[in-house]
Known about the structure:
By secondary structure, this protein is α/β, with parallel strands linked by helices.
Amino acid sequence: MSSIQVARAYLDYPLVGIGSRSLKTRVLSSATGSLISSGDDIAVVNALHDINFSLKEGDRLGLIGHNGAGKSTLLKLLAGIYQPTSGSVDANGRIVSTLNISLGLELEATGYENIILRGLLLGMRRSEIDSKLREIAAFTELGEYLDMPVRIYSSGMATRLAFATVTAMDSDILLMDEVIGTGDASFMDKAEKRLNEFMNRSKIIVIASHSDYVIKKFCNKALLLEHGRIVEEGFPDAVIETYHSRTVEVVGA
Length: 253
């Protein structure tokens, strides 16, 4: 059964090249709510502090917070890109991440070759890719361009190719940093339907977004983060209300 368990997770990482006693370090520490601390030799970013939560199948968690609150960092921790400095992160199930949708695109390779390469990079088996290749190709609507190198694609065409490939996967745990799009307004209706199907196939979703609409539409739980700490956990409506009230307090202070 798919699940996520995060227990007392902390994440610190060094800022190379910034001296601990420099004026720059002190200014950065003040500006980030003491996220940056100083050791004897180097400054350290205290990115996440005492993160605790658990998710089971059927949970859709929205991450809410200001820029720099730790939403993307937490997603990277769940994806295994970062390892916790202390504490634990246990995820059971096949993880699919859309944190960098174009990761793995080879500019000199053709569209078809990129579908295969990106599928393998995302953890798909070759037989799985082969069984979905025709469907992915048809969805992109790129036609003969799929036989051409990606370097001649427009940014919208390249995004379509990456989008079609990642949304063909079946995930147990889906991690998203904002809702992914196609970069092509004329393609959005078709893409939105595919995205909804992709998300509905996932057993657990964790999504970071600045959009209240997205959080309310897709999520049944929410976490409010501030400076790498969980401030509130609960139903999306309540957590969003807390976020806006705290934002007003900060602006009015």
